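Exercise: predict the fold of this chain.
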Amino acid sequence: MAQGIFQAIIEGDGRGRNIFVDSAGTRVSMPGRAPDPRARTAVELHCGVKIDRVRARAVMQEDFQRFDYLIAVDSDNFWHMESMCPESCTNKLSLLLSHDPQASVYDLPDPYYGSITGFENLILMMEPALEGLSTSICSGLEKNS
């Protein structure tokens, strides 16, 4: 979900061509699987974005060198990423909601066992953080230009 929403944010403001977005999990029981149908529906209805082509994959060791930012959705995923992260890359790790200055919690809930409403609420929680992340990344890109 976050990948599709973030892609829409950066493409919407014209900065998408300079940023590559990918997603991976720390525990992937079914690699190659498409997102939950409720997630696909919620993202398409709320953001106008199709995430049908996104496929589940596990975080890999090379991700820590390949990407400038590695964002976890909750403390458990953060801990797993931190445990496999080379010391030289720990500055790349953060919790998604830490990019929202208004956030009062930092762990996103897992909506899997609920209805589509849980996925819709997740989008509302993620959007300000993804906007903040976009601003942070793009500020860094402008400084390096």
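Check your answer against the key: The chain has one domain: 2-136.
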